Every structure is written in structure tokens, then in C-alpha cells.
Amino acid sequence: MAPPAPPVVSAPVAPSRSGLPFAELHYEELLACVHCGFCLPTCPTYAELGQEPDSPRGRILLIKSLADGRIALTDSVRLHLSRCLDCRACETACPAGVRYGHLIEAAKVEVERQHPGGLGRRLVRHLALTRVLPSRRWLGGLTVGLRVYQRSGLQALVRRSGLLRLLPASASAAEALLPVLPPVAWGRLPERVPAQGPARSRVGFLHGCVQDVVFRAHNEATLRCLTRQGAEVLIPRAQRCCGALHAHAGDPVRARALARENVAAFEGAGVEVVLVNAAGCGAHLKGYGHLLAADPVWADRARAFAARVQDVTEFLAARPLAEPLGPVRLRATYHDPCHLAHGQQVRDAPRTLLRAIPGLELVDLPESEMCCGSAGIYNVTEPEMAARLLARKVRHVVATGAEAVVTANPGCILQIAAGVRAAGHAVAVLHVVELLDRAYRAAGATRPGAGR
To answer: What domains sit in the chain, N to C, each tagged with a CATH number?
Structure first.
């Protein structure tokens, strides 16, 4: 059956096009969409709501109508655009090669320009994007405060009291996502981690912002797995937050500034590849060429940098794994992070690594490529839709009978862990490198310097 034809979108007519500059929009990318509808069944919001304006082609029509000045950015239009997860599943399905991710990010810049919100929202956004995420000190301080909140018993008291119901939905959604926070690792990872045995490659590693503070254990496991393969790992001190959340939040100026700093940080390292263990960060780094395409000083440098970026699972699966690997007796299923499967088109590598682990039973997850509702900070900004998608994901996870869900992105880990916890299921949520590292430990593999 052919996909349904797009309906006519009606909205109040804008007074002029001059009020909608869409500075970040490449208008010709809009014209690539042929409205065939192959994106519809892949879109999480369309799957849940069944409304054309909540589908990729519907949003493209809205963006084009806004750019042409035929409609105004009303609350209704803004809602349909804001509901987009930017999961890019539609890019995988699109036969015309539409770069939908570019289009929706340009639209979100315009939404922020015209509707920045009240003083409170602007202040929180400013602190999050310009202070907390780019600063290890701010992020670490926030994490310490949240750890005290958990360890003191205050979190349990607040949850029992029902106070969270009095807070804005975004605040209560953010609180529900909190994992059991480890002590903050204030010390930085070493700038160089030597290979175990003869060095066969020289790689760079992006340690991330939230990833290194909240999920330092994942970074250490990543380093152990890499050095076990004979990789010498360099971790430049000058690296910064990748800027993905800034770009998704409609702040391209800050995203570009961070991109320039990261390109410069890794340029002089002399590494063959730059490895990332967070799918959202990796997809954004691979897009630095597009992000800085209009910058005459940085465009070529950004493209060269982006061409060297790989997800850690890509790198590890591209060569025979060092042996021995010990048994990990576990029934597990794999969830595809959107920005790994769709943003980077990496699907087989994580599964190849998991299948190489003795004793691990890997079972298929229905709708494994359907977004779990995390999508950066979408689960905070759009908690209702995120909750619907999470419930859908948890149902599929439970149906597999798996003891663990394995994935490759910190946002997915936080989201799915919160979902299975709230539903009362004892299912672990793990990163691919955690299980690979566990297999090496089971075989008595030695630990590299970063893990001591």
C-alpha cells in the first residue's frame, strides 16, 4: 500500500517573510523532499500520534511554509516542531537523501529566536549551556550536590512526599532520570594511556562532559578495551564539550565555538582516529564539517577532523579482538541509539562485539531502532511524549526476557534505566564496552594505567 498523501497544512498567514530569516537554513535542502511518505512508519512521534504535522514530511512542509512566509510560527506550529526528537530515523528511510537533521536544527534556532521563553527559562538555559556543560567544575559541583541529595535520604523523602507533583513537568522528569550517582572523579584521565604490549595504533579519545563525570566507569572500561587491542590512547586536555546539546537546543553560535576548540585540541595530537563512546557526541563530531562549512578559516580543518571520528565500537569491531575473552553468562538484548544507527549508520559493530563474548546470549529487541525518548534533553523538554516512547521501549525489553539491555549512549542508558526501574523490572542497562571489559576481566586481563 502506498503511503498516504500529505494533507494541506493550514495556519495563520504571516505578515511578511522578513520576520523569518532562518539564518541557519539551507533552503535547497527543503526541496529534496518528494513527500513520498516512506519516513512515516519510522518516525516515533508519527507512530504514537498518527498526525501528519508530527511526521518528518509534515514538519518539512511546515518549515518550508515558515521560510516562505506563508504561515506564522504559532503555538501550534511550534508544538509540532518541538515534538521532533531529531532521531534521524527518517534519514535512514528516505530514498531522496533528505538531510532532515539539518532542517529541524535550523527550525529550532528560529523557534528559540522568536520564542525564548520567560526569564526563568532563559536563565536556566543560559546556565546549562554556557556554564554547566562546558565546565568540569560546574558539572562536578552539580553532581556532588545531587549525590548529597541522594545519599542523605532527601531524595527518598521528596519522592514519598509527592512534592515532585507540584514542580513543572520538566523538573520532575529530570529528577526521575537520576541514576545512583558515583563519587565525582575530580581527577582528569591521563593525557596518554600506553598500549598493553606493542603499540599497533595511536588513537585520540573524546572523554565527554556528562560522560566523564557521571559515567567515568564507562570511559575507564573503554580505555582498558582499547589498550588491550594494542592502541595507545591520547586524551588532549584542551578538549571541550562536543556541543551537540547546544546545537539541538538552537544555540549554533556556542556549538561552533566548542567545535573549533575540539578541532584544535585534536589536530596536534597526531592520532589516526578520534574515538567516542557516546553516540550523540559522535554523530555531532562527524557533522563538524557541516557545522563550520561557512567558516573560511575552519571549514577544511573541520572536515578533516570529522573524517577521523569513529564510534569506539566501529574501531574495535574492524579488527580481530585480542584474546583471551572470558565468559559472561548473561541473556542480553541490544538497543540501537538513534545517533549511532541513524546518525552514523553504525548497527553491526556493537552486535559483532557482543556476539564475540563467550557465554553471552544476544536476543533481538523488537523496534530496536525506535527512539527510547531520551534524545539529548528531549525527555526533560517534552516529558509526556518521552514517557510514551519509553513505555513502548520497556514493553519490548521485558518481552525479550533479557537480563540486561545493552546500548552505546549515556542518554539512552539513563532513560531506559529509569523506565525499567519505574516499571519494577530487574533489568540491568549497560554500555557495550562494559560487557567487553567484563569479558577481559573474566579472562584475567591486566588493567591499563587509567584503570588503576
So the answer is: 22-114 (1.10.1060.10), 119-177 (no CATH), 192-317+446-451 (1.20.1050), 330-442 (3.40.50.1860)
